[in-house]
Amino acid sequence: MARAPKQPEIFDAELDHLPADLRWREWMGRVEAVIFAASEPVTRDVLARVVGKSCSLDLIIDDIREELRGRPYELVSVAGGWHHRTRLAFGDAIRAAVGISDAAVALSEAESLVLTAIAYYQPITRAELSTFFGREISRDLIGRLRSVGFIASGPRSPQPGAPYTYVTTKEFLSQFGMNSLRDLPDMEALEDAGLLSKEKLLAGDIPVAGTDPDPDTNLLDDAAEEI
Known about the structure:
By secondary structure, this protein is an alpha+beta fold. The chain is built from eleven helices and six strands.
């Protein structure tokens, strides 16, 4: 006679049998353990599975952060979730011991410029990017940014031919320590200061702010060969 399949144990998220203070400590431990074990930021929905319905995840996170004060790592809010990160002050020690992390992505100047344009003006097409910089943006460069996970295809543009647009990803937010695109420097303030203008840049009639009008010293010209 075949054995009946073993029933999975029901996970107790509520912990009603514990005193309030011990329940809170257990929830803190669970939340930190899940975040510590994850290779990418953990969202609120995921963390809610291991705590009671009455638990405030924001307060749990605050208490965990308080306990991590003075430690070489911290709990950061990034890419719509939470992640453990080593503190910047220990970067030199880490590089001296183990070198640059495999997770670090080195971008060329041209790739960085194009990524910045996509971040601010998404969704944007490759043709618009080419107009933006006054030179052709190669498929190889776009492919490089896609391969490292920083951009993805967005909605099709209403332009003739309905070309794909490009948008940034959660990996972009995570790599650059942002929780959302709202963490980018305020574009309206930059536009008011004359540093950014999508319309003028796409029309190709504005220099890049902060650069010498002499093409020999223009940042985009310095990166032209790479683009």
